[in-house]
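subagent[fold] <- orchestrator: predict structure for attached chain, return tokens only, no commentary.
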Amino acid sequence: MDENTNSIRVELNRLEEAGILSSELEGRRKLYRVNDQHPLTENLTAIVRKVTGVDALIDRVVGRLPELEQVWICGKLAQGVQSDYIDCVLVGEDLDEAYIKELCSRVEELTGKTVNAEVSTEIHPEQLGQCLLVWVQETDEK
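subagent[fold] -> orchestrator:
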């Protein structure tokens, strides 16, 4: 990033004061997270998804794979850095990998980005710190 670290810290503090971010200290590091309870979180997330192309991936893949349980974005996009790649992990049982490849090709046409989709039955622990959960199948549990 070509930004002054002090400028970034000031903006993060402003977002925290506005309630959009929350933070916690881990040793000498301050870790920020999106505050899921903030009323604008859903709208801001939609904007980020649109700009990065993640919305096209979710729209094309989620509706066509009922057995899909989760969609995780990894790589540069998960770090908040613009990228020509959408690296993702699709989690679910008995997912049709050939069909997913076809859907990803359509997403590539729509976004102009290369989609690298990994299909798995679970997200691996080593991926948790490097990936961002962007969609979860809603359950009907009450």
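orchestrator: received. Logging for downstream: Residues 27 and 108 are 41 Å apart (CA to CA). The chain has a mean pLDDT of 85.
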